[in-house]
Automatic annotation (TrEMBL):
This is Methanol metabolism-related c-type cytochrome. GO terms for molecular function: electron transfer activity; heme binding; metal ion binding. Residues 25-62 have a biased composition (Low complexity). Residues 79-179 form the Cytochrome c domain. Pfam families: Cytochrome_CBB3. Residues 25-67, 185-208 are annotated as: Disordered. Keywords: Heme, Iron, Metal-binding, Signal. Residues 1-22 form the signal peptide. Residues 185-197 have a biased composition (Basic and acidic residues).
Length: 208
């Protein structure tokens, strides 16, 4: 066993301290708070991430990460749960709301190339239909906006790409519908018509 000299230990300590300092310095500046910070804390987020939706006692449906999937109100032609998080809406006859269909189209145009068809994942990027069962909506938004990198795996930032960002909620609800297995693979067969409110919001986002 080698004996380290005091000088050697000091050098090592300085190197470690320098490393720790560098790490702290590299921390990104405070991330901007998402638009609606009053979102409910993800109760039981540690619970089985990939578990499909389970029926809650109240008659609604919740994800294992605590997210309530029950459509509560419609705004700008899109459905939201009671906490204001976007959700898909499926009628008894299997008809999906327009936003879910829009999400299918935008996902196919912007995300499919890396994340695989129908949110199924690829050898390069994870299955987003599963990611949305684990990540909460705000985590999803943050990654989609700012991107992510791990080694040579690069997730681009979409926050300034209107073709993706104006429809990011649609992509999210589409992926929720896929992840809960409510929507089979492929193009949604039956969907609601596009509403005037949806068109108005779309125009203001794309041209704003
Ligand atoms: C150029 C390829 C590419 C495109 C296009 C792309 N992604 Fe990604 N994405 C990745 C890679 C690679 C990762 C994994 C990055 C990592 O682990 O650091 C990733 C990770 C993610 C994650 C985190 C998943 C998790 O389970 O942690 C989300 C969310 C995501 N992407 C959303 C999107 C959305 C939404 C789109 C379309 C608007 C999109 N991505 C388009 C490559 C891409």
């Amino acid at each position: 066993m080698t004996h380290l000299t005091t000088a050697g230990l000091t050098a090592m300590f300085l190197a470690l301290a320098g490393h720790a300092y560098a790490q702290t310095a590299e921390q990104p500046a405070e991330t901007p708070a998402p638009a609606a910070t009053e979102a409910a804390p993800a109760a039981g987020a540690e619970a089985a991430a990939d578990a499909p939706a389970e029926t809650a006692e109240a008659g609604g449906t919740a994800l294992a990460n605590g997210m309530d999937l029950t459509p509560d109100k419609m705004e700008n032609g899109r459905w939201y749960n009671a906490e204001g998080v976007p959700v898909f809406k499926k009628e008894a006859d299997g008809t999906f709301d327009y936003a879910t269909f829009s999400g299918f189209r935008r996902y196919s145009a912007e995300c499919h190339v890396c994340h695989g068809p129908d949110g199924e994942g690829s050898t390069y990027a994870p299955a987003l239909k599963k990611s949305v069962l684990r990540l909460d909506y705000y985590d999803f938004l943050e990654i989609a906006a700012s991107g992510k990198q791990e080694g040579n795996l690069v997730m681009p930032a979409f926050g300034t790409n209107k073709n993706a960002w104006c429809y990011i909620d649609d992509i999210y609800v589409y992926l929720l519908a896929r992840g809960t297995e409510e929507l089979p693979r492929g193009r949604p067969a039956k969907r609601a018509d596009k509403s005037d409110e949806f068109t108005a919001q779309e125009d203001s986002c794309m041209n704003g």
